[in-house]
User: Fold this.
Amino acid sequence: MHEFDLIARYFRPLAEGYAGSYALTDDAATVDVPEGMQLVVTKDLIISGVHFMGTEAPGVVARKLLRVNLSDLAAKGAEPVCYFLGGALPKDAQESWVAAFAAGLAEDQKEFSISLAGGDTTATPGPLTLSLTALGLVPKGQMLTRSGAKAGDLLYVSSFIGDAALGLKSVRGEIESRSFLEDRYHLPRPRLSIGQQLRGVASACMDISDGLVQDLGHLCTTSGVGAKVEAIKVPVSNAASASQGEPWFMETILTGGDDYELLFTVPQDQKDKVPQGCRLIGEITAGSDVSVLDANGYPMTFSKTGYKHF
Amino acid sequence: MHEFDLIARYFRPLAEGYAGSYALTDDAATVDVPEGMQLVVTKDLIISGVHFMGTEAPGVVARKLLRVNLSDLAAKGAEPVCYFLGGALPKDAQESWVAAFAAGLAEDQKEFSISLAGGDTTATPGPLTLSLTALGLVPKGQMLTRSGAKAGDLLYVSSFIGDAALGLKSVRGEIESRSFLEDRYHLPRPRLSIGQQLRGVASACMDISDGLVQDLGHLCTTSGVGAKVEAIKVPVSNAASASQGEPWFMETILTGGDDYELLFTVPQDQKDKVPQGCRLIGEITAGSDVSVLDANGYPMTFSKTGYKHF
Assistant:
């Protein structure tokens, strides 16, 4: 496989819908930003054996990579425009792998109206390493941030929490296999429409990638507030509920990563504008304490609060 | 070392000059594009042991990473705005390494008026892998591309060719040590000012990263033209000339990579606007033949035409 052949055969078709990509024949791409709009840029890097197992179908790896970045755009209220892909492929990578990877991207490009605009491909003596930079648009000054939560604001999540963490247990054979949960682990649903509806409504927003408790901590730190979550209000899917009796259940739900649901705060007087299906799980408080209360109103403790990268 | 501490201590200071970075506390950054301007985006990925040796000072690795991307912006006539950094660090990476790496970035941020705006840091079981996405601005529709060269256009380079290739030989101990050349290998000079002066003047432009002959081939393919280069006109520095008697000399100059000089074409009636110091090395021709003629006017042949990534 030669770099330029790979690009021409598998990646150029992904860029053809986007004029600013110059069909990947140039050193750079152009992006137009309409008047009154502002660009939102996010970048994520995933590594085989670290962020995914390496045994997944190549199309699944591709789609997860794209979706975790789209989830960041969703959390900022942005509309996707285009993305840039950096791929470091092991020297023994097969062309069929690249073909299936590109097919996964093609599938999700259609679903999420985004196009490849540029990138870089190279060989590595290490594990497959993928970097993606996604660009989106918001009306100027309307990007949702992590910093606007105020004491008294209501705290919401966009949907079920913990499915992906249980999905990972299922993939690993630690619980009986449940395909719904595995699917949620492999293919997060970027909440683009919800994020866009939250512009001008949410006071703070982020996506949950490192676990609800840890990411809520980040949101609170950035906003300079505390929070109280009622564990009983955290929505759990039927598929996940099957494990409800396990001693690890609640901790896994609340601290497991890979949810890619939105976590957001809304001033009391805006609560009627919260999109349908989102669930109230608690409230923002003064101070800096972040606590999760059990069904009896006692603060819960966790052996770890979420995914650590080092 | 913890990811969030690393970011706070070493990378946040690099982003403080850029409001859209939200001091690296958010999921994404914002970028404003003034009316009448267009964004130019480029992405490069470098891996220890592949694109650099791994024995370089961390600050040198940082600056080369930034500069190879700035060189792409230069080649497109763009003015740098901000960049996004993805770093996959080996698990045994030392905090002192990260500190020196960030110090290198800080130095070049000042020199090239660019700021860190966001990114992602993670651990890898493989070699140090760095990805950088650089954003710049051009007046709308004025990005220099690879595709506009026409038969009869004049072919130029921005400065000496081959210094970096000889610098690599010097670093490797294959020739007697010459610090000028090693410096040119480690620290390319992105030709930002020349690139910006070429807007509306050059018909095609790119930067030379994979060797003059190979990259000229890319430019010609994209433009649908051929080219004739007179080897004797290709400018060579005094430091490089010391190896002039070696049998490998001319091939190394013409096909060695890492020059990061601009290669560009200019219609005959625009030649007075070519920035000072740039050198005429040949001419664009009809057809698709790319040939380099020796001092006697005979086409030269090369055992390899440049750097191959796979």
In short: The longest strand of chain A covers residues 79-90. Chain A touches chain B through 67 residues (CB under 8 Å).
